[in-house]
Design a protein that fits this description.
With about 325 residues, this protein is of the alpha/beta class. It contains 16 helices and 8 strands. It folds into 2 domains: about 170 residues, NAD(P)-binding Rossmann-like Domain (Rossmann fold, 3-Layer(aba) Sandwich); about 140 residues, no CATH class. The structure holds NADPH dihydro-nicotinamide-adenine-dinucleotide phosphate and magnesium ion (2 copies). It is an enzyme of class 1 (oxidoreductase).
């Protein structure tokens, strides 16, 4: 379809992509369009099996996909990877082949101890799978982090870069990192700022307005709905672009009130979150929670879903048809 990959490190390689969700589907499609030989590894009867077949892939059980592959990309949810490694990868991966991750969690926190005779690398696109695919189709790519954890063949870095080229990342930007940096910064970002920090800021702002007697509908617009406008401006042009678009009054309020809400104490607590990530406390707790059947995860998730901001939000969004399915759901959701 598109021009074949120019990077010789994987020229005649067979690549097994395990998982066909957000990242797996995008990687498999892009690698195939880059001229590489791709087999998709999935559980037969799972929801992704039919989809990958329908999209023209050779699909096999993970162990069979791994046999004979020169590179195995592990693109299933992180928590299922240790068992997948033990059962389908370790017994079958060829000596000298490469094992590739898109997130360093399991290797960095010792949940997967890869065989010594294989390469272990990381290629992590800085964007969701849908964007990895759509940018590739436009002839562009999404920047990727890459890292080498283990270099058994002597060619691990070249293979990681060739894979990043194959999914389009080489057209944009490749940034070298290591498993520790990628894992710890990824966890910190999602906990302190992106998912944890942002959602708590919104919910606390909503509660403050509603408890002061303002209408929940109006509070919703002010603290959740309009957040997108601000985030889009950050995304496009940083703080500068946001400040160019908001009123002088909003800017002055930002300068004097922002630091009252998110202050030095917040930063201290961010550091405590980072310490828990660095010393393995978070990983240990999360793995124990997963193994116990997710009791706290389920309870905390339900509490978020039951918050009044969710009821008023659902009612308001139903009257804004342009929001319905604006972002397609990932092919498969982790951790139901
Ligand atoms: P998904 O949750 O989208 O993966 C779901 C896929 O994995 C489905 O195809 C599912 O198949 C398959 N799967 C689940 N369990 C197994 C199993 N035991 N054996 C084989 N296949 C299985 O994953 P993501 O794409 O979100 O994440 C993949 C990796 O990429 C993770 O390491 C993640 O941290 C990393 N990453 C993710 C990003 C993202 O944007 N989501 C960004 C950067 C990195 P079925 O449907 O049949 O159950
Ligand atoms: Mg993450
Ligand atoms: Mg929250």
């Amino acid at each position: 379809m598109n021009s074949s990959t120019s990077n010789p490190a994987l020229a005649k390689a067979r690549i097994a992509v395990l998982g066909y969700g957000s990242q797996g589907r995008a990687h498999a499609l892009n690698l195939r369009d880059s001229g590489l030989d791709v087999v998709v590894g999935l559980r037969q009867g799972g929801p992704s099996w039919q989809r990958a077949r329908a999209e023209g892939f050779n699909v096999a059980e993970p162990a069979d996909a791994v046999k004979g592959a020169d590179l195995v990309a592990v693109l299933t949810p992180d928590m299922v990877q240790p068992a997948l490694y033990r059962e389908a990868i370790a017994p079958h991966i060829k000596p000298g082949a490469a094992l590739l991750f898109a997130h360093g969690f399991n290797v960095h926190f010792g949940q997967i101890a890869p065989r010594a005779d294989i390469d272990v690398v990381l290629v992590a696109p800085k964007g969701p799978g849908a964007l990895v695919r759509s940018e590739y189709e436009r002839g562009r790519g999404v920047p990727c982090l890459y890292a080498v954890h283990q270099n058994a063949s002597g060619h691990a870095e070249a293979k990681a870069k060739a894979y990043a080229d194959g999914i389009g990342g080489g057209r944009a930007l490749l940034i070298e990192t290591d498993f520790k940096e990628e894992t710890e910064t990824d966890l910190f970002g999602e906990q302190a700022v992106l998912c944890g920090g942002a959602s708590e800021l919104v919910v606390k702002g909503f509660e403050t307005l509603v408890e002061a007697g303002y209408k929940p509908e109006i509070a919703y617009y002010e603290v959740m709905h309009e957040l997108k406008l601000i985030v889009d401006l950050f995304y496009e042009g940083g703080l500068k672009r946001m400040l160019e678009f908001v009123s002088e009054t909003a800017q002055y309020g930002d300068y004097v009130s922002g630091p009252r809400v998110v202050d030095a104490g917040t930063k201290q607590r961010m550091k405590a979150v980072l310490t828990d990530i660095q010393d393995g406390t978070f990983a240990r707790n999360w793995i124990a929670e997963y193994q116990a059947g997710l009791p706290n995860y389920k309870r905390l998730k339900q509490a978020d879903l039951d918050h009044p901001i969710e009821q008023v939000g659902a009612k308001l969004r139903a009257r804004m048809p342009w929001l319905q399915n604006a972002t397609p759901k990932p092919a498969a959701e982790p951790l139901k």
